[in-house]
């Protein structure tokens, strides 16, 4: 489990740019935690496909009460969280420090793409692909979520959040109701080299106070210093090629946003040497 830092990051963003009272921002989430929420079809599919839920008492109590998996339209809530109040006291959480950095800016095809610096590889990977395209004459979801926001003043936010795999480490804390992440899995480990998996990456080995390599690609696109678009997605290693192809579909080929998202995509895993295709609503989510 990696130290959860999402709330700390949101608080830092609020301190710098927020206008509303901090407490008011969480009222909708608090209401959902107390009263529950209706299970959407996408979540129902993830619940049905996951083998982790019935193996962990915490997950089972929330997502399979009475040993019966929740389905679309059911109400999901955690009674223990409502009773406990969800208070966490951990030294690691207190010591977590938010790192504020400038966005990486990449020029591509008349647009400027602003995205995450390392250890996220998304923006740099997209830059690599775009540089390859300049020489041409033609042009699976884990536990990740992404949101794109543009307000009436043209302020833009592109934010990716994740617990890594679907339902994280497959463990849910009964006291807090929080699904435990398995972000440590994003680090590389010194294993034997094989033909069906990526080789070890020493620069991404586990070290204290280190952030693992990531494929998250939240980006903001500008043209002539004016906002042109906000993109991002989920799907682990599928994120980067999904973002690249949707970017090309819309900004280069002129497709409407929905058509750009729903158009077929191709993906190469590099190792193993396999090319896969996706049609319709792709496994790699994107907004």
Automatic annotation (TrEMBL):
L-glutamate binds at residues 162-164, 186, 214-215, 236. GO terms for biological process: glutathione catabolic process. One of its GO terms (cellular component) is plasma membrane. SUPFAM superfamilies: N-terminal nucleophile aminohydrolases (Ntn hydrolases). It comes from the Eukaryota. The active site is at residue 144. GO terms for molecular function: glutathione hydrolase activity. InterPro entries: GGT_peptidase, GGT_ssub_C, Ntn_hydrolases_N. PANTHER family: GAMMA GLUTAMYL TRANSPEPTIDASE, RE13973P. This is Gamma-glutamyl transferase. It comes from Linum tenue.
């Amino acid at each position: 489990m990696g130290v959860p830092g999402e709330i700390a990051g949101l608080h830092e963003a609020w301190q710098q740019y927020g206008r509303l009272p901090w407490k008011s921002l969480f009222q909708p989430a608090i209401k959902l935690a107390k009263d529950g929420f209706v299970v959407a079809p996408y979540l129902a599919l993830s619940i049905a496909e996951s083998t982790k839920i019935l193996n962990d008492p915490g997950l089972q109590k929330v997502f399979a009460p009475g040993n019966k998996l929740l389905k679309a339209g059911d109400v999901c809530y955690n009674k223990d969280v409502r009773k406990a109040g969800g208070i966490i006291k951990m030294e690691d959480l207190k010591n977590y420090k938010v790192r504020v950095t400038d966005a990486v800016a990449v020029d591509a095809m008349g647009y400027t793409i602003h995205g995450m610096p390392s250890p996220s590889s998304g923006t740099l990977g997209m830059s690599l692909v775009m540089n390859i395209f300049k020489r041409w004459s033609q042009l699976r979801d884990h536990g990740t979520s992404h949101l794109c926001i543009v307000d009436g003043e043209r302020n833009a936010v592109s934010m990716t959040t994740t617990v890594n795999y679907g339902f994280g480490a497959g463990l849910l804390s009964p006291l807090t109701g929080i699904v435990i992440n398995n972000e440590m899995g994003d680090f590389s480990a010194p294993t034997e080299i094989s033909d069906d998996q990526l080789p070890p990456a020493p620069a991404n080995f586990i070290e204290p106070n280190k952030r693992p390599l990531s494929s998250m690609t939240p980006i903001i696109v500008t043209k002539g210093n004016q906002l042109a678009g906000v993109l991002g997605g989920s799907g682990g290693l599928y994120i980067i090629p999904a973002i690249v192809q949707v970017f090309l579909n819309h900004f280069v080929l002129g497709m409407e946003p929905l058509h750009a998202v729903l158009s077929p995509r191709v993906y190469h895993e590099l190792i193993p040497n396999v090319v896969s295709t996706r049609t319709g609503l792709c496994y790699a989510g994107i907004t």
